[in-house]
């Protein structure tokens, strides 16, 4: 997501470890991409060469689902469990509940981070608009002062006595 910069556009490229283009977006302000991965190094690039004059501020988040959650870790719990089948069933329910809470908390953190990025972009737009409104208000005030001075001068000139008296 482009947070700040002219027109809020940027190009995005995502390449697989084999060098194949997985995602190519031209002049987008934000985007969400989901990709099935394989082992290897991926390359992603944010390209601003079409707008060399203005620089951009970009927020991105890389979310790796199911990273570090092997079945082996869940099976390790079971070797420490001793007792009846009823106890095993309750521990499995507790483990399932804990994993569910962990997944939901992780999703909440991701959503809050995304909302902070939206808020930062909106704040930058609002500050830019505030500066623009102040600039044009000052220009308008200057024009009004000049117009009022010209009007006063013209009114005075209407009431001046232009007749020359000869004595």
UniProtKB/TrEMBL annotation:
Cell compartments where the protein resides? Endoplasmic reticulum membrane; Endoplasmic reticulum-Golgi intermediate compartment membrane; Golgi apparatus, cis-Golgi network membrane; Membrane
Q: Does the keyword Signal apply?
A: yes
- What SUPFAM superfamilies does the database record attribute to this sequence? Supernatant protein factor (SPF), C-terminal domain (SSF101576)
Q: Which organism is it from?
A: Rostratula benghalensis
Domain of life of the source: Eukaryota
User: What topology does the record note for this protein and the membrane?
Assistant: Single-pass type I membrane protein
Q: Which residues form the signal peptide?
A: none
Keyword Transmembrane on entry: yes
Please state what the protein is called: TMED5 protein
Q: Where would I find the GOLD domain in this sequence?
A: 1-64
TM ranges:
135-155
Q: Which family does it belong to?
A: Belongs to the EMP24/GP25L family.
Alphabetically sorted, this entry's keywords are: Endoplasmic reticulum, Membrane, Signal, Transmembrane, Transmembrane helix
Recorded name of the encoding gene: Tmed5
GO cellular-component term (any): endoplasmic reticulum membrane
Taxonomic lineage is: Eukaryota, Metazoa, Chordata, Craniata, Vertebrata
InterPro entries in UniProt? Emp24-like (IPR015720), GOLD_dom (IPR009038), GOLD_dom_sf (IPR036598)
């Amino acid at each position: 997501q482009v947070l700040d910069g002219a027109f809020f556009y940027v190009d995005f490229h995502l390449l697989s470890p084999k060098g194949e283009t997985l995602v190519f977006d031209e002049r987008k302000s934000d985007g969400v991409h989901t990709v099935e991965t394989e082992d290897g190094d991926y390359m992603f690039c944010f390209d601003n060469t079409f707008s060399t004059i203005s620089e951009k501020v970009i927020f991105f988040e890389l979310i790796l689902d199911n990273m570090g959650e092997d079945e082996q870790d869940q099976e390790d719990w079971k070797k420490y469990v001793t007792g009846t089948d009823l106890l095993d069933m309750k521990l499995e329910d507790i483990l399932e509940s804990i994993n569910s809470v962990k997944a939901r908390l992780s999703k909440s953190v991701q959503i809050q981070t995304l909302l902070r990025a939206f808020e930062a972009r909106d704040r930058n737009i609002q500050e830019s608009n505030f500066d623009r409104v102040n600039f044009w208000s000052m220009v308008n005030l200057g024009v009004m002062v000049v117009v009022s001075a010209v009007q006063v001068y013209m009114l005075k000139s209407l009431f001046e006595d232009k007749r020359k008296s000869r004595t």
